[in-house]
Amino acid sequence: MIELEGVPELIDPVMVAAFEGWNDAGDAASTAVAHLDREWKGEVFAALDAEDYYDFQVNRPTVWMDDGVRKITWPTTRLSVVRVGGEKPRDLVLVRGIEPSMRWRSFCNELLGFAHELGVELVVILGALLGDTPHTRPVPISGTTSDADLARRMDLEETKYEGPTGIVGVLQEACTHAGVPAVSLWAAVPHYVSQPPNPKATLALLNRLEDLIEVRIPLGELPEDARAWQVGVDQLAAEDSEVAEYVQTLEEARDTAELPEASGEAIAREFERYLRRRDGGGPSAEDRTRPPMPPKPGAKDEDEDSSED
Length: 309
Fold this sequence. Notes:
Layout lengths: L13 E7 L7 H12 L3 E5 L2 H4 L8 E5 L2 E5 L4 E7 L5 E9 L5 H15 L3 E10 L9 E5 L2 H6 L3 E2 L8 H11 L4 E9 L8 H15 L8 H17 L2 H18 L5 H16 L5 H5 L12 H7 L1
Parallel strand pairs: 1-6, 1-7, 7-10, 8-9
Antiparallel strand pairs: 2-5, 3-4, 5-6, 8-10
Helix pairs in contact: 1-6, 3-5, 6-7
């Protein structure tokens, strides 16, 4: 029995999880959850027993000094809770840890026990994989679920993957069997620049998460870090003609494949995000179904009118 003392009653809680390891190319997913925890000052309320799930020869503990006293930090998975303010506040339960070495089913059942006790309405698991994608284009983000109804309602893909999987896939299926709505968001990281960090992929995951759960996420310095990362990779690619040629090949393939998808849906999604960041909230359901009206010919901008006044 899981007992949660000191955790207040949560408002429309969503669990957001990410795990270091096989499902975390460029550390993009785990960095995204760490960003949420840092920006919203999450408070850790639970940690899984490290000895139940981790091989310490694979994930070694670290020793550190605290006022002259030696202490050990054990590799584990921790849960924290943050409250997102605004007109419609809601709580996020953040799960940040390491892919377990053993007892994956028990690991997932323990997390689902927390989800049940906290009244979690949706589980979102973040992941990142290596792909044939150019660093110069927007990071591809795919949203998948095993629930056909959830796929229709939230504009997601119903997963058809077959093959080796990691803790992200196992946890998603455990949620499905337990009747807990679950979604996985995957970022594709260029395989030729896979070393962490990858702030561009982290930023893309957070933007997609923002759209999915309809909250405004403070991005801090991430947009600037993402730009600096791309400039740095541009410079490295320019120094090697073979790499530059390969990147160009990826760009051409990506542009050709995505040309039919340059639709109003993608433009509308970006417009909604702009409105949320400008107004501190999202447009109403009615506004989301109505395209923005173009300005009338000869009409003046509001800023221009105010400057003349």
